């Protein structure tokens, strides 16, 4: 199948796929960030039960394979009378996986600050909330720009899990498998989706690098 | 990657030694959050109970030896794919890194493009590629390789970057010294840089094995009998979907947790950081 024939037959599907991948990535990443902050707050809170739950959350979702989690959410939860539509299943899976890694990024961002700074802040008479708000969070955010750009790319790649459930519209990986089950698509069908992914990843890391150069703290 | 030991110290550094009033407040907070967590657990268990998922017929299959033997066979499949893919990725990643740092312009550009390509493409897309394309070209490929090759390619891109970070961690002065005493660039790489770089990245290589194990989970796409695929077979014959998937998830989590811990252990022993 030639390039022009492929585009005239399936061009629209690819475009929908790209948009579906982008929109699922964007929605997921917003919630990933929110949840990652919440989990991190739980992990540094003075309450032991919260710390334990936060640590457990990270260990579970860092180590579970994405497909296993998606299958549980899509096929096991309905048996427990929790039914989500397919798109939500994929997004929830991506959010759970991504937020665990996001919280790890925040934790190592906090770890780079150094005990001395916190001691200094305290001896100046800053309160706990002031220390968190004025010393810890600004620095943790600035040092995590690059890891978070990588996380955004990882979130995009995770949305490829959408090919494992009947999405409508399908995302980029699902489109390719759809085309190839119908006809002999060949290498080109894969290359188009692959270039969409790689191109998006390139744009993300370009933007991330520029942002990082502007806000990075040089030590 | 955060080393738990230092994480604890910074966690605790955030708080000053509590006075009696703070201590009481923390205690109250602990009790309240503890109660909330318990409430959450009860809600989950209750949901399992009211939907009948705690019924013995869903769990009794785990008392049978045959269940575990079949899952064990699947686990062997998972391990063999993961090790084979890991070994191939190791070689490919090293080659890609050597090509990229070779200083030969076209080769280095090519290796860079290949590395970025495999890092920027989801492994599922690669698996579908090896599932469809060889068959379309009339090649018969065993399902083992339809799974192992894409997983290996996906990992090789990341490993190339890990190796490159290891090479960059070797002090520049050593390379300059080696060149100035007359070693060729190739020999400098082989005798001076690589031995140190490889030692430096060992914990990161172990940690990457987690990604490889995760990627093998989609073996059912090419119907290769790995842990997940065998679990699906058991589900159709026992009709125990929820319990089986939960048990499988726990097994995967424990395997990956152990690999991560091993990476951390080696990293702490050698003082080399884990690069992701």
Describe this structure in words.
The complex is a heterodimer of chains A (219) and B (276). Chain A has 219 residues and is mostly helical. Helices cover 79% and strands 0% of the residues of chain A. Chain A has 9 helices and no strands. In chain A, helix 1 runs antiparallel to helix 2 (48-63), helix 1 crosses helix 9 and helix 2 crosses helix 4 (86-111). The mean pLDDT of chain A is 92. Chain B is mostly helical. The N and C termini of chain B lie close together (8 Å). Residues 1-7 of chain B have low confidence and may be disordered. Chains A and B meet through helix 2, helix 3, helix 4, helix 5 and helix 6 of A and helix 1, helix 2, helix 5, helix 6 and helix 9 of B.
Topology:
The complex is a heterodimer of chains A (219) and B (276).
Chain A: H1 3-44, H2 48-63, H3 66-76, H4 86-111, H5 115-123, H6 128-143, H7 145-158, H8 172-182, H9 187-215
Helix pairs in contact in A: 1-2, 1-4, 1-8, 1-9, 2-4, 3-4, 4-6, 4-7, 5-6, 7-9, 8-9
Chain B: H1 4-13, H2 20-50, H3 56-59, H4 65-100, H5 105-120, H6 123-136, H7 143-169, H8 172-180, H9 185-215, H10 227-238, H11 241-270
Helix pairs in contact in B: 4-5, 4-7, 4-9, 4-10, 5-7, 6-7, 7-9, 8-9, 9-11, 10-11
Biggest beta sheet attributes of chain A: none
Q: What is the chains' assembly state?
A: heterodimer
Mean pLDDT of chain B: 91
Main pleated sheet of chain B: none
C-alpha geometry of chain A: flat
Share in β-strands of chain B: under 5%
Number of helices of chain A: 9
- Along the chain, the helix and strand elements of chain B come as HHHHHHHHHHH
Biggest interface, residues from each chain = A-B, 67 and 58 residues
Global shape of chain B? flat
Judged by helices, strands and strand pairing, the structural class of chain B is: mainly alpha
- Tally of helical runs of chain B: 11
Poorly predicted ranges of chain B:
1-7
Radius of gyration of chain B: 25 Å
Percent helix among the residues of chain B? over 70%
Mean pLDDT of chain A: 92
The rounded distance between the terminal residues' Cα atoms of chain B is 8 Å
What percent of the residues of chain A sit in helical stretches (DSSP H or I)? over 70%
């Amino acid at each position: 199948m030639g390039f022009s024939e492929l585009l005239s037959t399936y061009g629209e599907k690819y475009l929908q796929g790209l948009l579906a991948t982008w929109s699922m990535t964007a929605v997921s990443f917003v919630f990933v960030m929110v949840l990652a902050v919440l989990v991190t707050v739980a992990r540094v809170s003075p309450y032991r039960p919260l710390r334990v739950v936060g640590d457990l959350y990270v260990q579970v979702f860092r180590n579970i394979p994405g497909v296993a989690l998606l299958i549980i959410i899509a096929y096991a939860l309905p048996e427990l009378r929790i039914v989500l539509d397919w798109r939500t299943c994929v997004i929830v899976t991506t959010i759970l996986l991504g937020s665990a890694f996001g919280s790890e990024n925040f934790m190592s961002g906090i770890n780079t600050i150094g005990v001395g700074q916190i001691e200094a802040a305290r001896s100046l008479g800053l309160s706990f909330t002031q220390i968190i708000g004025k010393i810890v969070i600004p620095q943790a955010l600035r040092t995590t720009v690059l890891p978070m750009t990588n996380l955004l790319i990882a979130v995009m790649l995770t949305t490829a899990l959408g090919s494992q459930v009947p999405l409508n519209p399908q995302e980029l990986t699902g489109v390719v498998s759809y085309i190839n089950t119908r006809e002999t698509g060949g290498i080109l069908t894969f290359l188009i989706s692959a270039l969409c992914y790689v191109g998006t990843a390139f744009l993300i890391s370009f933007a991330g690098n520029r942002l990082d150069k502007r806000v990075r703290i040089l030590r | 990657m955060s080393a738990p030991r230092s994480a604890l110290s910074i966690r605790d550094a955030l708080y000053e030694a509590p006075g009696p009033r703070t201590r009481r407040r923390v205690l109250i907070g602990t009790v309240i959050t503890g109660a909330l967590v318990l409430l959450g657990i009860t809600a989950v268990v209750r949901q399992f109970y009211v939907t009948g998922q705690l019924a013995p017929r869903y769990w009794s299959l785990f008392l049978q030896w045959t269940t575990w033997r079949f899952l064990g066979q699947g686990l062997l499949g998972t391990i063999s794919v993961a090790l084979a893919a890991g070994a191939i990725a190791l070689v490919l990643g090293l080659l890609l890194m050597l090509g990229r740092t070779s200083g030969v312009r076209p080769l280095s550009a090519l290796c860079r493009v290949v590395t970025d390509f495999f890092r920027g493409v989801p492994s599922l897309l690669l698996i579908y590629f090896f599932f469809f394309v060889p068959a379309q070209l009339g090649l018969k490929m065993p399902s083992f390789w339809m799974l192992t090759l894409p997983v290996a390619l996906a990992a090789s891109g990341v490993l190339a970057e890990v190796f490159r970070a290891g090479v960059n961690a070797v002090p520049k002065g050593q390379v300059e010294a080696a060149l100035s005493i007359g070693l060729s660039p190739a020999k400098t790489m082989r005798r001076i840089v690589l031995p140190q770089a490889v030692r430096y990245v060992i914990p990161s290589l172990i940690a990457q094995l987690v990604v490889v194990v995760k990627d093998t989970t989609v073996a059912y796409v090419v119907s290769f009998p790995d842990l997940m695929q065998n679990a699906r077979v058991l589900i159709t014959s026992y009709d125990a979907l929820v319990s089986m998937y939960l048990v499988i998830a726990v097994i995967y989590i424990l395997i990956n947790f152990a690999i991560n811990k091993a990476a951390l252990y080696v990293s702490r022993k050698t003082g080399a950081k884990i690069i992701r």
